[in-house]
C-alpha cells in the first residue's frame, strides 16, 4: 500500500527509488517523454507531452504518437509569463495534445493562464484534469470542482502565501499532493520526499487529522488517475 502520492513529478530527472510513493511522472518534450515511458513501473505512472516552455522548439508531431502508450498527458498547458512561444501557438499545442488523448487525464501547467487553460479543458470536453501547483484565482476553484478536476498542492505551500490561500479556499475533494520533483525552485532540487512534510503542514493548516487528510488525498489520487488498487 502506498503512503504518499505525487501527482506531478519530473521523475526522469531523478530516477531514484522512492519506496511508499506512487508517482505520476510528467514529461517536458519528446526526449523526456521517451525517457519517462521507459521508466513505467509498479509505482510510476507515465505521462507524455510538450510543456509550454518547449513549444517554441518542439515538433507537435513527435509527441502525438506517444500519447497512446502513456497513462496520462502532461505536462502540457499554457504559460503567459515564462514561455517563449506566442499564446496562439501554445493554445494550438495544448489543444492538439488534448484531442489526441483519448480521454486520458491531463496534467496541466497554467502559470498566469489559469482561466484560459480551464476554458480550453471544458471546451474540449476533458473529464479528468489536474491543475498543478495551482496559484490561480480562488474564484475558479468552484468551477474546477464542478468540472470534476483536481489541483495539486506543492510543498512550497509551507511558505508561499498565494498557495496557502488556495489551500484554505479549496474543497478537500479536489486536493492532491505533488513535488514537481526534478525541478529546481529557488536554488533547491525538489523531490517527492518533501511530500510528508507538506502533508503535516496541510493538516495543521486545515486543522484536519493527518491520517484523515492522507486518506482523502489517496482516494482523490486513485479517482483522478483511474488507478485500480492491486
Ligand atoms: Zn512540472
From TrEMBL:
What is the protein name for this chain?
Answer: TatD family hydrolase
Q: Which UniProt keywords apply?
A: Hydrolase, Metal-binding
Keyword DNA-binding attached: no
Pfam families, alphabetized: TatD_DNase
Q: Where does a divalent metal cation 1 bind?
A: 8, 10, 75, 180
Judged by the first EC level, this protein's enzyme class is hydrolase
Q: Which domain of life is it from?
A: Archaea
Q: Does the keyword Acetylation apply?
A: no
Molecular function terms, GO-annotated: hydrolase activity, acting on ester bonds; metal ion binding
Q: Which PANTHER family match?
A: D-AMINOACYL-TRNA DEACYLASE
- Record-listed E.C. numbers: 3.1.-.-
Residues bound to a divalent metal cation 2 are: 109, 132
Q: Where are the transmembrane segments?
A: none
InterPro entries tied to this protein: Metal_Hydrolase, TatD-like
